[in-house]
Specification:
Layout lengths: L4 H25 L5 H10 L8 H29 L3
């Protein structure tokens, strides 16, 4: 069985981007929520600092791109090494 690289890239990108967006937005409501997670994310994505709706969108876009590239690489590796 082969994986569809486009589908896995979109799935991973949407899930990871959505997770970062949700945590960043919930952090606006409850400042103690997800602080360590957002600190880790801000150490990976240049220009992203937790705080504000604009920052949440920037982090989500970074995560969308990162998740999509990661999903594409996973699908490519899987298809490369799986017996057909």
């Amino acid at each position: 069985m082969k994986l569809n690289p486009k589908a896995l890239a979109l799935t991973c990108g949407i899930l990871w981007g959505g997770a970062v967006l949700m945590v960043a937005l919930l952090n606006q409501l409850w400042p103690s929520y997800g602080g360590a997670f957002l600190g880790m994310v801000s150490s990976i994505y240049p220009g992203f600092t937790p705080g504000g709706i604009g920052a949440a969108i920037v982090g989500a876009l970074y995560a969308l791109l990162d998740g999509a590239v990661g999903g594409l690489v996973v699908a490519w590796l899987y298809n490369r090494f799986s017996p057909a």
